[in-house]
Amino acid sequence: MTKIVQTTPYLDQKPGTSGLRKKVPVFQQKNYAENFIQSIFDSLEGFSGDTLVIGGDGRYYNREVIQIAIKMAAANGFGRVLVGRGGILSTPAASNVIRKYKAFGGIVLSASHNPGGPTEDFGIKYNIGNGGPAPEKVTDAIFARTRTIDQYKIADVPDVNLDIEGSQDVDGMEVVVINPVADYAELMEELFDFPAIRRLLSGGFRIVFDAMSAVTGPYAKEILENRLGAAKGSVLNFIPLPDFGGHHPDPNLVHARALYEEMMGEDAPDFGAASDGDGDRNLIIGKGIFITPSDSLAILAANATLAPGYSKGLAGIARSMPTSAAADRVAEKLGIGIYETPTGWKFFGNLMDAGMVTICGEESAGTGSSHVREKDGLWAVLLWLNILSVRMESVADIASQHWTTYGRNYYSRHDYEEVDTDAANGLVSALRDQLSILPGKTFGKLKVATADDFSYNDPVDKSVSSNQGIRILFEGGSRVVFRLSGTGTSGATLRVYIERYEPDASRHNFDTQEALADLIAVADEIAGIKSRTGRTEPTVIT
Question: What is the pTM of this model?
């Protein structure tokens, strides 16, 4: 039986770069989640009798909202829902399920790499039929609907048992609880040379993977240990917990510090990796060497043909604008297209659907390929292992040889988190006011070549995305980028990206922050970070 529930709008439900993210108590407000889910359904057409995929990263409040979403899907006319057992589906696995079963779309419940718990973060995003995040025209329509919504529809039925695989009826709609890992693992076996990786791991090659008590745990346990034969105990923190064990599930050098220190030790494993809350980000560390996400993208692209799924070559490479230009040099050498997009995986979807791009990446620890329409943390780990199993060289040697061939892009991101929103907006506004007068200015040995506010013209659908980040480019290839992030839930996060290109192989072994010191100082001089935000140093450096 369908209930029509009267409601009133919440005016703060504008999706960010990857859905709506707020603190759990915000989502627990009366009708808050229901309003947003109904606004999703009201913004879609032609789904009657079709399939919807629902899953999440297991964080606090995940199960409750899944029950709401299932009942609302039934009331709104979907014919079938596929949901991961226990409410679990990593973001890349959800994308794969949408694509494999030709679903109309999917609702993914996650706040990605943000903390979880009763007072921490929660999120809802909608993925379209290609498996990727909804494009801006869809999220704009959803937001517009949230501001006028006056009722929602929900089936008045008992909760679904999410812990038993199989089919159930919910008010005439079929709900199928699926194994969350099986389809994804099958896809990975198609892409990568599992026998070669098994030989590598059986020959004494040691790995460690920190799942950070998040969603990738069951996937990594099944694939790395059960199917590939990594030593038992290689996968750490593999049980997803609602509060991620009280830790911040962001695979960077701050929140995965223990892994970093282990990999820098005398008896370090050969390969270390981690993934985030919803499984779409990755951290790659070799024995004694951290591989930046920008370098990882470039190295994976340069070596991708060593894996069966990419043996015929790449159609092209795409990177977000703040990501270093290391991948550009690979694309140039391979003679394939390189595309620079705004931040947000949804911008890669059009390029992949059009067959223009095979591998994509963002500096924020996200890499992936056209196998799904999301970034994919475990995919990156497996491609690294496939490359290592063929080349039989260390991570450090592969990186060193890559830099010798292509040059090194020294690169770092400085995050200033929970900055006063007015102060952050004032900083960006002041930067925009300087854009016309910065070119030609000299700061020490650095001379500004160009300065702009990045705008993207989509080559596929011809849409235009403006105000995507302030770029200051210096002569010789160095640059500084300023951008306000849309992934936080309180205050503003100012991200500053600093990059220097160094073609001289004799200068490839400097400490990154040392190599970028003059650019870091110039970034503060131009933007007035300290004076405007009151921050003397970044919250996180990656």
Answer: 0.94
